[in-house]
Amino acid sequence: MAKIILNKSNYFHNLKLAEEKLGSKDKIAVVLKDNAYGHGLIEVSTMAKEYGITKAVVRTIEEAERIETFFEQILILADTDIHTYSHTFHIAVNSLEDIERLPENTNVHIKVDTGMHRNGISIENLEEAIHGLLRRKLNLTGVFTHFRSADELSCEFFWQRSVFIQAKNLIKSLCEKLFITIPKFHSANSSALFRFKNYEEDFARLGIAQYGYLETNSVFDNPKLKPVMSLWAEKIVTRELKKNQKVGYGGKYLAKENMKVSTYKVGYGDGFLRLNAKDTYFTPKGYQILGKVSMDNLSINCEDDEVCIFDDVRSLAKIHDTITYEITTTLNPNIPKEIR
Ligand SMILES: *Cc1c(COP(=O)(O)O)cnc(C)c1O
After folding, report:
1. For ligand 1, is residue 216 a contact (CB within 6 Å)?
2. Whose CA is nearest to atom 12 of ligand 1?
3. pLDDT digit string, tens, across residues 230-284
4. 248 shares a domain with 103
5. Is residue 217 a part of any domain in this protein?
6. Sign of CA dihedral 313, 319, 325, 327
7. Which residue among 38, 273, 292, 317 has the highest number of C-beta atoms inside a 10 angstrom radius?
């Protein structure tokens, strides 16, 4: 069986860097959507709580319910199908229609569209939204936005920031006029947080950086994060491959001399994206994955009883022409996890 080991001291190291940047643990909201980017919702919540984190962000109500006791505040990004009141839950309102759907007394965060144009309420509709919240007796507890290119060197980041400042000012003046408590404001994800010189909002939504990665352009002064997850696999069997014999589907790996080869219990069925024969991938110990990866196993030129397949997914992200987020998030949620 494959196994994921989560390195707690690396996790705490990454949170510490964010804490130093923000000035307080209370300003970190850990983003745990999609099974904590494949790291395990419960396992990461356990570590975050132990560190002293009080806020989390998830995608669905179902995720929020599973971790309700771990945090004081949970922001739910994309699910308005809520039927019972929870003091802990705060629901993101992504459109004027969402306002009509939520039950009375729900805590809501308005998502402002500052330029990503994916979801969110535009500045022109903010006043209508606030009146809608009052009419429906919903509690405005937060207002936020999301950057579309915080990881790239472009002026768009600054443009969206200035739009959000406008939105904040508008919200503040509406709240004063209508005697509503001023809500919490937040805009930064991982890459944005580390680009701000002084981030003065109420909290940041820390996703990928807590897991040890940033996709930010290397021209920025990036923090020295440490990957949290490593993937391990147990050996099934070792055999000798004779010179000129081939291994695996399509026989894509040819032994240049007699060699020992072992199969290990992990494959693309576990969400370890399929390497084909074109890719040369080496494990952290320098062993090579030979030929094509099968659904439930793969072959490696080693004899160890257990092998570490990766402890840093950046090289795999490169091979698969994708981002680190996708490599960890696609791992099968059923892979057992161990915190060390
Ligand atoms: C996923 C997500 C984040 C976290 O982004 P990272 O780049 O992983 O830090 C923050 N905010 C919203 C709205 C998200 O959907």
Report:
1. no
2. 146
3. 999 999 999 999 999 999 888 889 999 999 999 999 999 999 998 877 789 999 9
4. no
5. no
6. negative
7. 38
